[in-house]
Write a structure and sequence with these properties.
This protein is α/β, with parallel strands linked by helices. It has helices spanning about 5, 25-35, 45-55, 65-80, 100-110, 125-135, 150-155, 180-190, 210-215, 220-235, 300-305, and strands at about 10-15, 35-40, 85-90, 115-120, 140-145, 165-170, 195-205, 245-255, 260-265, 270-275, 280, 285-295, 310-315, 325-330. The strands form three sheets. An eight-stranded mixed sheet has the order 1-5-4-3-6-7-14-13, with helices on both faces. Helix 3 runs antiparallel to helix 10 (about 220-235). The relative contact order is 0.17.
């Protein structure tokens, strides 16, 4: 049982999919009937997938988390002072909240109380990380939202009486096709008030070998993360995929600036998905695309912010200039 002092400062809101928004089953059905086949990356992050992704962030090849953390360790104190205190925080894709912990600590040096509103698709991940934060910071209260970013932003009142700093870290912005990313930032714009801030962490464009290694580690953790999507279909949709007959593939498309991840059949593979009445026959070498991870130049980020009503303010880089954290301010 939670201690009363902690329980009183934590609330978890589960946000169901909005009417008209495709369900997991519907998205799987349409994606696997398409040519070429595809599955949405948001479904990688069930409780198993979220735990695997947390392990990925600790891999030596996955420099993104270390580079972003380097920026926050060195400049977190400055970041929270860019907007007038007192602040409240809103975060998309909080995960383990390891990054956010440092910014919360810096903010609570300037103000006695802070409200944090994380949004994450995994209810278990967001509950665990939120409770750990509340236990660590007596001045912190958390109202967490378990659901899809779009559903939460469209259906929940996230208004704060204070200045709000919204955060979209970990290069999560790169997981969206450009138009979809703009749609999400537009929703964030509408959830904020003029003068509120948006902090975006993004991976910068670099040589293909470094990028591909980050998304296909020798230990196979990223492969397990990707293959878990087939296992999830088996668990939740009565699927019969033999996961051992697939392999994880990642390749960088320099023209699009994207690392694309696939599940590739290593031999002819027949499978059924009972919940949607779908039977598949995949030939050897046929791929199912599961994720595109877009990389940015700083000018790309500035233009994206401008398109969605945000003015570029300050920016910080890690020492090797592999990663950028950029602050935007919501304009009227």
């Amino acid at each position: 049982m939670l201690a009363t002092a902690v329980a009183d400062r934590f609330e978890l809101v589960t946000v169901p999919p909005l009417r008209g928004v495709p369900s997991f089953a519907e998205d799987v059905a349409s994606g696997l009937r398409a040519t070429p086949k595809r599955l949405s990356s948001k479904y990688l992050y069930d409780d198993v997938g979220s735990a695997l992704f947390d392990a990925i962030t600790r891999l030596p090849e996955y420099y993104l988390t270390r580079a972003e953390n380097e920026i926050l360790v060195q400049w977190g104190w400055q970041i929270v002072r860019m907007l007038d205190a007192p602040l409240d925080f809103l975060e998309l894709g909080s995960g383990s909240a390891a990054k956010t912990r440092r910014l919360i600590g810096e903010a609570l040096r300037l103000q006695a109380q802070l409200r944090y509103s994380p949004i994450d698709i995994s209810s278990e991940a967001i509950r665990t990380s939120s409770l750990a934060l509340v236990e660590s910071f007596p001045g912190l209260s958390v109202r967490a939202y378990a659901g899809d970013y779009f559903d939460v932003l469209r259906s929940c009142e996230l208004y704060s009486q204070r200045k709000m700093l919204a955060m979209f870290m970990g290069s999560n912005i790169g997981n969206y096709e450009p138009d979809h990313a703009a749609e999400l930032l537009t929703l964030l714009h509408d959830a904020l008030r003029p003068g509120d801030g948006l902090l975006v962490g993004a991976d910068l464009k670099k040589d293909p070998a470094t990028l591909e290694l980050a998304y296909d580690d020798p230990a196979g953790v990223t492969a397990a993360f990707n293959l878990n999507l087939l296992a999830r279909i088996n668990r939740e949709l009565d699927g019969t995929f033999d996961v051992r007959r697939f392999r994880h593939v990642a390749s960088y498309d320099e023209r699009r600036g994207s690392v694309d991840s696939y599940l590739e059949a290593v031999e002819k593979n027949d499978a059924a998905i009972g919940a949607i009445g779908l039977h598949l026959s995949l030939r050897r070498g046929e791929r199912i695309q599961t994720e595109s991870s877009y990389k940015f130049g700083d000018e790309d980020l500035i233009e994206l912010g401008k398109r969605t009503g945000f003015r570029a303010a300050s920016a910080w880089h890690d020492g090797a200039r592999r990663f950028i954290v950029r602050l935007f301010v919501r304009e009227s």
